[in-house]
């Protein structure tokens, strides 16, 4: 008899509820859970791909160990052999410990990919792993796409994870920059794959939706208006809007009056920029900028929201700051219909780090942010000799060869490592450089709780997904791999017999008592809805209550949080942090003092490339035949006028060249991309040798990161620049 299992789709922050039909051994179908508290039956196509990942024949079930032909270096001719878990863990721990004992604390590094945030076991392991390894060389995928958000939250609100979430359910003016919610389903805003319905609802209740983007995206059909904007110029548009609001006397602090530092400092800063010049560099007419500003400021409940499209650009930190400053000056920060803050069932902020410039990187002198360095500098830290050089790496679920700028640079760095431990279910473009691959069990073989992504909630709710299948591989979750690996690493690392004994005892205690479920249960109990120490509290939330309610538990609409919820010392919003003021001259030099024109005149690269997502795939979902079948999405969108000037026709194969590299792909001629800009998908390029991923390799596409430049980053935040990269396009 067929059975039904309910869980949250773990693939993105949208957190859709899914219903999995199965026979006890095999998945028969995946569909939306109509009773899910958040998504109410809505899902995107990606959720169906979980079935393919569960059954994928290329998914590793046992550790793979590299056997080198030449002990002195890695080679594509090396062999891979399956080994038992005990041998694999001991080998991995011993290799990392050996390097640190020989070369020092910072000679090993850690790299956690983007999917870390989608996995409760990994999230719980991150801080202990970093503490036990003791290295300053910590890197994550966050500095490829979203670190400017965290940077702004830290400096304005006091904590990098005090996330501003659009109250989309109650707003009446929705101004969006660099985001495509129809495809992303509301990235950094968990709505349950029905964001397009919420955009329609804004308009149906008399509100307005406005999109600012270099491409007329799939979301445009849900907008009232769309304006093209030159890549990198979003900060200038926001300056124009803020300047107009001050000029017309429309700025209002709202209920946060008395809890804002720097109110009088913002207006003179934006006055440095001429409105006509702003219109020129953005390509948005001055009258439209001023009209949007007045509409926004006079709306009852406005909110301005932007995502990774404005985080992967040249002035990402400034843009994110100006966006939040705009919300503050119209009284929309922590206001109904504006930017609000969820109250998750597990309070994680007190347990997480938020810091800036406590120490600096060895080679380029980049400041740390919340205990990590930009991923863009990892390669130079590996390949530059000297004290503190990274010689060993622990990496989890991050395919940096395809996801980080300049994939060829990443390959050289990975090849140069003396020892590399990968925790990953695939032998892919990045893990093929590892010495040992430790594969965690599949997503349906372990429990799931969205501890991180509940920080993005548009309603307060909670849900726990129990494991669906228990197999021989199930005991090796990410959490158990890291627990075992770090226990053995610490024991090998120390030279003291007494410390070895104590570490061994602690390791046994952790293995026997700590599980993900127990940690989640404690977190919920001590959270805002749990019993805490009040044994007589009625209707308290608990892990058992979540198990009894597999569709989730609704905990209420978003409520006011500030000023008590601020993490600043004085419980006030820092409207004008000095780090952003210090970066304004760089913006001014580029857009006002002729830097942009000088760059264009001196460069042969006359177009700017931007990235786009597909509603069927993420970088780690190319192993699903359901999601990648059909037409290859790796095509270059180009405006017909730009195509004609280059002799390009609809059936052309073109070469796209940048300072960093060159790729070839077919074109699509479309008015949906603004002149001077071209667009292609990100996170493809499965054409490297010596991987084991038949489905992905059958539809390789090309990697946009083979033409992005690892040496060019947002100087303020260290985030990679993916959008707006200068290129030239020619027929092959």
Q: Can you put this structure into words, describing what you see?
A:
The protein is an alpha/beta fold and about 725 residues long. It folds into four domains: about 5-55, ADC-like domains (N-terminal domain of TfIIb, Single Sheet); about 80-140 and about 365-385 and about 415-555, Rossmann fold, CATH 3.40.50; about 165-340, Dimethylsulfoxide Reductase, domain 2 (3-Layer(aba) Sandwich), CATH 3.40.228; about 585-730, Barwin-like endoglucanases (Beta Barrel), CATH 2.40.40. Helix content is about 30%, strand content about 15%. It contains 24 helices and 28 strands. The strands form eight sheets. It has a seven-stranded mixed beta sheet. The N and C termini lie far apart (about 55 Å). The mean pLDDT is about 95.
What are its keywords?
Rossmann fold, N-terminal domain of TfIIb, alpha/beta, 17% strand, 6-stranded mixed beta barrel, Dimethylsulfoxide Reductase, domain 2, 32% helix, single chain, 732 residues
């Amino acid at each position: 008899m067929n059975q039904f299992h309910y869980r949250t789709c773990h693939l993105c922050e949208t957190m859709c509820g899914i219903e999995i039909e199965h026979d006890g051994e095999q998945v028969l179908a995946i569909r939306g859970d109509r009773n899910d508290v958040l998504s109410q039956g809505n899902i995107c196509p990606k959720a169906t791909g979980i079935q393919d990942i569960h059954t994928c024949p290329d998914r590793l079930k046992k550790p793979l160990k590299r056997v080198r032909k030449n002990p002195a270096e890695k080679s594509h001719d090396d062999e891979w052999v399956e080994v038992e878990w005990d041998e694999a863990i001991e080998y991995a721990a011993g290799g990392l410990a050996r390097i640190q004992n020989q070369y020092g604390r910072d000679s090993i590094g850690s790299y956690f990919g983007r999917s870390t945030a989608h996995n409760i076991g990994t999230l719980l392991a991150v801080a202990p792993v970093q503490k036990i390894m003791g290295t300053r060389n910590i890197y994550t995928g966050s500095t490829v796409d979203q670190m400017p958000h965290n940077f702004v939250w830290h400096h304005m609100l006091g904590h990098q994870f005090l996330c501003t979430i659009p109250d989309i359910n109650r707003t009446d003016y929705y101004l969006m920059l660099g985001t495509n919610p129809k495809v992303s389903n509301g990235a950094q805003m968990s709505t349950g794959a029905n964001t397009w319905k919420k955009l329609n609802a804004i308009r149906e209740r008399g509100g307005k939706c406005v999109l600012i983007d270099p491409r007329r995206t799939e979301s445009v059909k849900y907008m009232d208006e769309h304006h093209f904007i030159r890549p990198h110029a979003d900060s200038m548009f926001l300056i124009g809007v803020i300047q107009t609001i001050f000029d017309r006397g429309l700025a209002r602090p709202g209920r946060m009056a008395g809890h804002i530092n720097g109110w009088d400092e913002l207006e003179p800063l934006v006055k440095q920029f001429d409105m006509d010049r702003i219109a020129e560099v953005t390509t948005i007419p001055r009258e439209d900028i001023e009209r949007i500003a007045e509409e926004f400021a006079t709306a009852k409940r406005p909110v301005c929201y932007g995502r990774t499209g404005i985080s992967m650009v040249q002035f990402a930190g400034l843009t994110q700051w100006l966006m939040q400053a705009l919300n503050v000056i119209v009284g929309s920060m922590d206001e109904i219909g504006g930017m609000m803050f969820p109250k998750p069932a597990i309070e994680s902020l007190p347990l997480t780090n938020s810091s800036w410039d406590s120490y600096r990187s060895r080679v380029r002198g980049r400041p740390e942010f919340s205990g990590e360095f930009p991923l863009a500098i990892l390669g130079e830290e590996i390949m530059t000799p000297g004290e503190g050089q990274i010689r060993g790496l622990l990496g989890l679920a991050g395919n940096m060869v395809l996801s980080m700028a300049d994939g060829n640079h990443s390959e050289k760095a990975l090849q140069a490592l003396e020892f590399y431990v990968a925790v990953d279910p695939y032998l892919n473009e990045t893990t093929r450089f590892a010495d040992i691959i430790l594969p965690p069990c599949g997503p349906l073989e372990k429990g799931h709780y969205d501890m991180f992504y509940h920080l993005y909630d548009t309603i307060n709710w909670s849900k726990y997904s129990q494991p669906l299948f228990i197999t021989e591989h199930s005991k090796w979750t990410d959490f158990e791999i890291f627990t075992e690996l770090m226990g053995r690493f610490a024991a090998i690392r120390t030279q003291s017999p007494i410390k070895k004994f104590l570490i061994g005892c602690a390791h046994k205690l952790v293995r026997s008592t700590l599980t993900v479920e127990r940690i989640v249960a404690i977190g919920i109990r001590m959270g805002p809805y749990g019993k805490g120490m009040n044994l007589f509290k009625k209707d308290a939330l608990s892990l058992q209550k979540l198990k009894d309610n597999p569709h989730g538990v609704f905990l209420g609409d978003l409520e006011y949080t500030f000023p008590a919820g601020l993490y600043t010392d004085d419980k006030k919003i820092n409207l004008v942090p000095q780090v952003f003021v210090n970066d304004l001259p760089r913006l001014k030099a580029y857009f006002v003092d002729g830097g942009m024109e000088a760059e264009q005149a001196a460069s042969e690269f006359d177009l700017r490339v931007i990235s786009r997502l597909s509603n069927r795939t993420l970088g780690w979902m190319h192993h699903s035949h359901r999601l990648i079948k059909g037409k290859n999405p790796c095509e270059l969108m180009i405006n017909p006028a730009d195509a004609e000037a280059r002799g390009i026709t609809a059936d052309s194969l073109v070469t796209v060249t940048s300072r960093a590299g060159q790729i070839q792909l077919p074109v699509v001629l479309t008015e949906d991309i603004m002149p001077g800009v071209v667009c292609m998908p990100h996170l493809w390029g499965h054409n490297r040798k010596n991987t084991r991923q038949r489905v992905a390799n059958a539809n390789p596409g090309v990697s946009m990161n083979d033409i992005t430049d690892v040496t060019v980053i947002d100087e303020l935040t260290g985030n990679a620049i993916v959008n707006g990269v200068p290129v030239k396009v020619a027929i092959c």
